[in-house]
TrEMBL record:
Protein known as: Discoidin domain-containing protein
Entry keyword set: Signal
Ranges where the record places region Disordered: 325-346
Gene3D superfamilies: Galactose-binding domain-like, Metal-dependent hydrolases
Keyword GTP-binding: no
F5/8 type C domain ranges (all copies): 552-689
Alphabetical list of PROSITE patterns matching this protein: FA58C_3
Native organism: Streptomyces xanthii
InterPro entries on file: FA58C, Galactose-bd-like_sf, Metal_Hydrolase
Amino acid sequence: MVNVQPSRYRLRSLGVVSVLLAVLALVLAPGPSSAAEPHWWEPTARPAPDSQIDVTGEPFKGTDAQGRVRGFVDAHDHIMSNEGFGGRLICGKPFSEQGVADALKDCPEHYPDGTFAVFDMITKGGDGKHDPVGWPTFKDWPAHDSLTHQQNYYAWIERAWRGGQRVLVNDLVTNGVICSVYFFKDRGCDEMDAIRLEAKKTYEMQDFIDKQYGGPGKGWFRIVTNSAQAREVVEQGKLAVVLGVETSEPFGCKQILDVAQCGKDDIDRGLDELKKLGVSSMFLCHKFDNALCGVRYDSGALGTAINVGQFLSTGTYWKTEDCKGPQHDNPIGNAPAPEAEKRLPEGEEVPTYESGAQCNTRGLTDLGAYAVRGMMKRNMMLELDHMSVKAVGQSLDILESEAYPGVISSHSWMDLGWTERLYKLGGFAAQYMGGSQGFVGEAARTKDLREKYKVGYGYGTDMNGVGGWPAPRGKDAPNPVTYPFRSFDGGSVIDKQTTGERTWDFNTDGGAHYGMVPDWIQDIRNVGGEEVVKDLFTGAESYLRMWANTEKYAPGKNLATAGVGAWASSSEWWNPFESFQPGRAVDGDNSTRWASEWNDDQWLRIDLGSPQQVGRVTLDWEKAYGKSYRIELSTDRENWTTAWSTTAGDGGFDTARFDRTEARYVRIKGLERGTQWGYSLKEVGVYTG
């Protein structure tokens, strides 16, 4: 063979080839996910025909420079509401394997012209008539004021995600009373059956979307059961879907003639089942008073209709009283609701109410307090909306006694006067999806509190929730939404949304369906400026931080029950069947109590057994409470210092916080009674902080 020496040309050629190979290797090597998965946000297969998305650009991923996730939070939505209320209150489905034409069609009784759309008559007024045809024309629905048609079609939710939303709370919802009195239904009214079905359907929707992207785990719709999962999903640029529950009689806890139809075992079984279903947040009452709590009223004709439903289910109407503080429930009003009132027995009439008496007499019951503590035990988030102001105050008392952060107001049904207490605990607040001008105005009212507690903001669309949504401001309104526009993060371009033959314009259609959420946010941006949308865009981080702190919660050690006992100035003795000795206030059982003699100057002293750091004392009063009293500490039982005092005690649950102090003895010194009886404490808690 001939030995040939390499030439300079050949060496140069080899060098060029090496460089080209190196470049090729860099191109083909694994890189960032957006490079490895080009157009990862677009499905490889979608039902045909289907709704358009009308958003271009890659959804943002990751965190900001401080490691915080970004994105909007819808803290209150009802994707599967069509499966509740007997199956025929909300017409249409959020997805269907048979495609959009099967998913978006009206209820059978609405054909041919909506004459028998009875719920429309009650909620919207008029005769309920409308064009029932959905796909492809959508002449009359979905619409901002149509409360009975599907607004959560999956592709519309996809558009909201593409527009910057990163957390969605899907509240599994039904109402056994509404189901029982509604004329049309195709299933039973058991609330837990409906909740189970809606949870199942939500997981099926996740699978349906996954198929479009190539298999399990590939889609943008991700159900999460803890904050770490949610954070990971948001960092991937996808939508974290949290399961909640909003129902009128959870666990069968209705009341009939003020008698509870459930017990503590029912509550424990129900909460355990919800946890297994993946539920992370929950309402304890909704629309109707139940065995757990009284509700915050609805107003107008809808309120009258709901009051009728309450009577038919429980045998009692709402009862009102003068409010004891600045907070108040919604005014009931006395507007007629003829279609609903026809269901009352002959001779029965809905009572009229004094305009000044705006508070529900019913608050949080003992069973309700047990349920709150059960949720805390399971690290679940408590929804305050729909509770009466009395029930909210009592719930906050319990949460504050344990410094429990898992508390939410998700759609403007909590009196704003409670907002600071909620933020102080570490909770999260969202405002109802109303018109942009009203939304901006209400957001401004709580802006200082958000800055004080360094929290973001959320919205609650309540789509499919029978509430009503932003009306169009009009094409000639100032600062209209101009299409196309860029999303707040700057990465997506959003045009008018088209489904079938219908194209929606927010200026003339308002918040007709879930796909209009990005358009609504743009309207808020135009009307209120960047700051309010900036607060909304930090909502995902605040929500996930609140959730993570809820998961970390562990009850503190009660130094009082671990101590050596309690002594008192006096104890009631008149009842031969029940002891009211001081030890009953530190036995860990709030069904027992200490009760003093009936005069002002009384005390209860607790011996912790050894010197301890004390920074918090909780008092669970029976009906006989202290109006004026103080918490005193001592190391030797001789010399006492006042750690905390009040002259405005109102009973219920009190929490006294003060600087940590070393003490062996804790004394509750009564100065003035709140009733004609003595002082009575079901349980006293003493904690380090």
